[in-house]
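Appendix C reproduces, verbatim, an entry submitted by the partner laboratory led by Prof. M.T., so that reviewers can inspect both the input and the predicted structure.
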Amino acid sequence: MNDRVARILSWAFQPLVVPLYGFVALWFAPFFYDYAPQVKLKLLGLLSFSVVLIPVLCYWMLRKTNVISTPQADNRKERLGIYLITLMCYFTAGFILLFSHVPFYYVAMLFTMAVCLLLMAVINVYWKISAHAMGMGAMLSMMLFLLKYHQVDCPWIYALWLVLSGFVCSARLQLNAHTPAQLAAGFLLGFVPLWTIILFGAIIF
């Protein structure tokens, strides 16, 4: 993999926009079938605004003011602000879903992601951890959940995302943005807590 391909992958699967791919996947989840199209659009629009658009705009402002000096925020000290902004956005999105009559474990997913971002922010003070890998791991666990508990008949999506996760992690290595340990820690931080909460959420609720 050359640097150009690695940069393209890093931008295409930037952790701030990865949730948007998940919202598109949720459109096809069986529990969404009973929702009218306009309700789906409204709900996904609100989530996209709170979880994707606001963090992206904040990131852009931090870049313009040189609070973040590089496109991928390579300096771990510069990442704290965007982590805290994003986790607040996830909490907001969680409350949006809480009052939207969707299954509670989907609400728990967003709150869990906010907690994971808080953990990442704390870890980042002492050790740089991969937000790219965390985003890919979190999305992988959500897709596995849809396959296992909602009988979404698209196993190729899970396989594709698994392969993409490998490519994105390889891209971060190619760009010398992270070490293998930082990538593994980020992936596990995204995958394990989210998979645990949706697993128990599906059983309980």
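The mean pLDDT is 80. Additional entries are available on request from the coordinating office.
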